[in-house]
Amino acid sequence: MTVVTRFAPSPTGFLHIGGARTALFNWLYAKRMGGKFLLRIEDTDRQRSTQAAVDAILDGLTWLGLDWDGEAISQFERKDRHAEVAQQMLAAGKAYYCYASPEELEEMRAAQKAAGQPVRYDGRWRDRDPSEAPAGVKPVIRLKAPQTGQTVLQDRVQGEVTVQNAQLDDLILLRADGTPTYLLAVVVDDHDMGVTHVVRGDDHLTNTFRQIQIFNAMGWDLPEFAHIPLIHGPDGAKLSKRHGALGVDAYRDMGYLPEAIRNYLLRLGWAHGDDEIISTEQAIGWFDLEGIGRSPSRFDFAKLDNLNAHYMRAADDARLVGLIVPRLEAELGRSLGDAERDLLKRAMNGLKQRARTLVDLAQSARFYVAARPLPLDEKAAALLDEKGRTVLKQLAELFAAEADFTAATLEARVRGHAEQSGEKLGKLAQPLRAALTGSTVSPPIFEVAELLGRDEVLARMSDAAGAA
């Protein structure tokens, strides 16, 4: 048997971070089992579905590196097939026409509420002859669901879950206008696409029992189900925007790398011993449904930041340059030339050691390509008082006369000057840092000086030493 999983988002908004985790789990399981990962856009809600949302979902999955097999399937385009299956169930006596009007159904619900009963369809047209149908009323088609016994789900995550059939009513398969309901469409699509494993959030658990009844009515084999607990915020409450319930695109904008997001989402509800840093290759080799926990996981930005910092340090320098250049160009309001890009690449190893996100990285790299005179932050400006400017003038004389303009030589010269003047090295290095970077925090300052080069270093020192 070839394992076939699927991700089936509704295109009513961005690719939610919880949806991204569901897609990841399906993708990993298919990869692990040598199977297929399919993508189905559940766009039957025509009023809320938009092409912009479809594009956002495809873009988010692509950015995450979750490639799917074949073309993305539109559920709406399969509506005739869904209606055909409803008619098959009708012909087989597994479904029936219901002519109850909306007003009748509302009265029924009100009476049930008043009597303290569960609100569900009471089967009033289940065994009536269609000849009794009121004139001019277009019927819906309802499933003739079993009324006794129980429906049992052997879930790969939740274990055995049972519901009494008396608690489930005769759900609508086809609306009066001939359009299929979500529950019917999902079952037909999963069957026709050959889906063998349905891995999704446990908020679908109630739907699953109804869908099992449709599978059974059609005599179709059931896929295996695995219902994943939802993601909660750090406080244990349902994940909201303040916790991180954002679109995948927002995480990209916040400067996270896709491999870090994949690693973090993998660990939200799945474990492999005590391993925290898990490469995609390891994840494919290790992932199984049994490793998914039954308890909701908690989103933690601090852990995500730490993971992202790890992947930033491991990332290729040229790739990081390509990722931060658009951010720098937007902030500077100009394009960066080849020489500036080359400078950033040579500086990247020192820059990425401290950065947690691409936003941090771009901000820390900005001084390399900023126009003179360099803007100074408040702390850097405070260092460049009269004494600081005097230090710069003294160091400028040393630097101007130095033939070997390398980090090691420059540091040796400044240390020698510190010993002669009786100053601590930091008292000399900090004004230099302020002059060259505009900040009090940077990569090792003598490495910065070597990368900037003699002319640019002397020019920045002159700017700062001459500042009022």
UniProtKB/TrEMBL annotation:
Q: Print the keywords alphabetically.
A: Aminoacyl-tRNA synthetase, ATP-binding, Cytoplasm, Ligase, Nucleotide-binding, Protein biosynthesis
What SUPFAM superfamilies does its record include? An anticodon-binding domain of class I aminoacyl-tRNA synthetases, Nucleotidylyl transferase
Domain Glutamyl/glutaminyl-tRNA synthetase class Ib catalytic: from-to ranges: 3-305
Aminoacyl-tRNA synthetase class I anticodon-binding domain: residues covered:
328-464
Report whether Methyltransferase shows up as a keyword of the record: no
Task: Extract the GO molecular function terms from the UniProt entry.
Answer: ATP binding; glutamate-tRNA ligase activity; tRNA binding; zinc ion binding
Name the residues that bind ATP. Answer: K241
Motif 'KMSKS' region mapped to chain:
238-242
Coiled coil start-end: none
Q: What is its main location?
A: cytoplasm
Per its UniProt record, what InterPro entries does this chain match?
aa-tRNA-synth_I_cd-bd, aa-tRNA-synth_I_codon-bd_sub2, aa-tRNA-synth_I_CS, aa_tRNA-synth_I_cd-bd_sf, Glu-tRNA-ligase_bac/mito, Glu/Gln-tRNA-synth, Glu/Gln-tRNA-synth_Ib_cat-dom, GluQ/Sye
Q: Does this UniProt record's set of keywords contain ATP-binding?
A: yes
Entry GO terms, CC? cytosol
Residues forming the motif 'HIGH' region are 9-19
Record's function text: Catalyzes the attachment of glutamate to tRNA(Glu) in a two-step reaction: glutamate is first activated by ATP to form Glu-AMP and then transferred to the acceptor end of tRNA(Glu).
Subunit info here reads:
Monomer.
Q: Name the chain's protein.
A: Glutamate--tRNA ligase
Q: Identify the species of origin.
A: Azospirillum thermophilum
Query: Gene symbol?
Result: gltX
